[in-house]
Amino acid sequence: MLKQESFQVDAVWQRLQKEVVEAGLCTHCGACVGLAQGQLQMQQTVRGPLPVQLPDGKPFDLDERAWAACPGKGVDYPGLYRYLFGELPQNWLIGCYRRTYVGYATPEAVRRAGASGGVITQTLLYLLETGKIDGAVVVQQGRTLPYLAESVIATTSAQILAGAQSVYQPVPVNEILGEMAGFNGRLAYVGLPDQVASLRELQRQGHPGATKVDYVLGPYVGTNMYLEAIASYLRGNGVNSLDEIAELKYRDGEWPGYLMIRLKDGRVFKAEKFYYNYLIPFFITNSTLLSVDFTNELTDISVGDAWHPRFEAQGEGFSVVVARTEKGEALLREMVDAGTAVLEETSLEDALSMHGHMIDFKKRGTFIRLAWRQKMGRRVPYFGYRPVTMPVSRKLVEMVISSIFAVCGTSLARKIVEQIPLKIIGPLFDTLRKTWKNLSKPTKRKGLAQVEFEICEE
Fold this sequence. Notes:
With about 450 residues, the chain is of the alpha+beta class. It has helices spanning about 10-20, 30-35, 65-70, 75-85, 110-115, 120-130, 155-160, 175-180, 195-205, 230-235, 275, 280-285, 285-290, 310, 325-340, 350-355, 355-375, 390-410, 410-420, 420-445; strands at about 40-45, 50-55, 100-105, 135-140, 150-155, 185-190, 215-220, 245-250, 260-265, 270, 300-305, 320-325, 340-345, 385, 455. The chain folds into 4 domains: about 10-70, no CATH class; about 75-225 and about 285-355, Aspartate Aminotransferase, domain 2, CATH 3.40.640; about 230-280, no CATH class; about 355-455, no CATH class. Helix 9 (about 195-205) links the parallel strand 6 and strand 7. The chain is globular and about 50 Å long. Mean pLDDT is about 95; it is low at about 1-10.
């Protein structure tokens, strides 16, 4: 368990500013804003949405739980594992789990609306239709501005469907904690790993909004990009303002989908998923580089794309699904029995193999990056565990990866890439990605399944 520190309530915001926001550790989860009773707001910056005090600058007291629930300063994974599951993981690569599946939502419209198999959306619909919940915290793209996504409490099937699809930009989901506290009914919640960790900590702390959540769902999360990635893509196509966007979808169309941007003047830009991924090394968020959780380990049910040749060949969208809690497993069984989902149990080995590269990126790569950051005298988040050993060969691979991110993240590199047409940079990036994946696979996969982790003090 993290030690509970005692300090004046009015010092909480100052501490968050200094040790998280100014230190570059903010994950943009929005929890501090959600706990500030209207005294903080999220402000869009080139480095993602960040919490700021309202312009009037009036003194205020920030809920002490804002520090405990801030994933930017770190996450007490061992403590939360014991709180949620009553034990530590038997396999630290995936976290605590009961069963793993591959499947999809049965309704064709739901399956096609989702990023992969529509399982998260269908689960929310089932929960609402069977009266197990009265609302669901989801993210909707374009609710107020076409290029922005924001969190809402969906109370109808139509609103839940409007929250389908992946969103590849930081969204401060937890800024609506106050609205959750005032909601009349039980909730489901969909969030990224850092947002879920914050919610779980608030449940442990007894926050009235968090404790209304009965079911927590979440996608796998490898890398995320700042909204500036979309601005850069548009500049490369001669469009100089996000305000020209009328509609934005990150994974439109047939799985695996494509980026679709429709402008107010009627023009439409499309880019295949693996082509517009060229933006990742140029605009990857700092928080995803410092996160150790890929499979959303603190959920009841977590879902990712089923990247396997057998499913990719079918091209209709399949999800790998992890049931982590007893109620999560029971819910999935109910859905299969009701005919709303098709789920085929698969082995843990198969489930892990579908995302071996990204699991290694988080479970070994992140800890290497954290160690380097700390040696440079910079603050690092504390997660409560770490690998016992790290092969030198894996550190060398990480040097290459981190060097690429460092170079691509410069202003010059970003300006250069904007001058290269997608028809060139897209296929080139995809080829380089596949080549690097094949070259680094022996090192990145070697010994991954045998990595041992240990609990560590802060």
